[in-house]
Amino acid sequence: MTDKVNRHGFSFRQKQVQRDFVGLGHEITSCLPLQMSLYFNVILFPFWLVTTAVMLYLKYVYLSSIYRFIIILISVCLTVIECVRLYLGYLGNLSEKVPELAGFWVLSIVLQLPLHLLLLFSAPMWPLPGESAVEFVMLALLMSQLVTGFFALRKSALHQSRRYHLAQIQKSSQNEM
């Protein structure tokens, strides 16, 4: 099957691929709900950090030595991971980079979710009411980021793969001429 060629030597198929590639290149795939959730998480993070430190100070004498070690380790890990995770989330979502967005999502589901659940529902660590309230909000934000991050990651990956395939088609059609 041959394509019809216009007077400039371009086939109609080549023009369609070129229009699709240019149109696809200007599409924005960042996710607004994910970005809003990340924004609120950045605002809440210092309050969570202060609340966790104050509550740890209040209940430190009542904990056994093993739980003192565990809760300090979890708090330090959560703080470091949260900073990296939020940075990757912002970078991956706003600049539409799939690896950063995937790193954000993996850190969220593999590390943050279990550690927050452990802090919230572990009876030997005696979560105090203030700590529980802040943890519930952080957990709600984390869950919303997991859901919206999954869809943002999927949309961004599909968009990048389409751009790659259209670029390959356009490159091969230019090489044929």
UniProtKB/TrEMBL annotation:
Any one Gene Ontology BP term: non-motile cilium assembly
Iron-sulfur is among the record's keywords: no
Keyword annotations from UniProtKB, A to Z: Membrane, Transmembrane, Transmembrane helix
Residue ranges of the TM segments: 38-60, 66-88, 100-121, 133-153
Location(s) in or outside the cell: Membrane
Membrane topology recorded in Swiss-Prot or TrEMBL: Multi-pass membrane protein
Superkingdom assignment: Eukaryota
InterPro entries xref list: Uncharacterised_TM-17 (IPR019184)
CC terms in the record's Gene Ontology section: ciliary transition zone; membrane
Name of the protein this chain belongs to: Transmembrane protein 17-like
